[in-house]
Amino acid sequence: MVDLPWDLEWVESDIQESLLEYEGWSPMGAGHGVGEEHVERFSGVLPESVLYVWRRFGFDGFADG
Prior knowledge:
Structural class: mainly alpha
Largest sheet: none
Helix content: 40-55%
Low-confidence stretches: none
């Protein structure tokens, strides 16, 4: 397994460049926030990058859902 270098600053940069600046891929604004209990439950199970996106956008859809 290859250990790729990343940190939350890289994740945010990738979100900005690959998701938010790409036409039609902005959050729908129809989701709801993620409570800390969900983050704690999945901490150590899901990658920290996924948890970061949950904290940043909540449970939301992108583009057409």
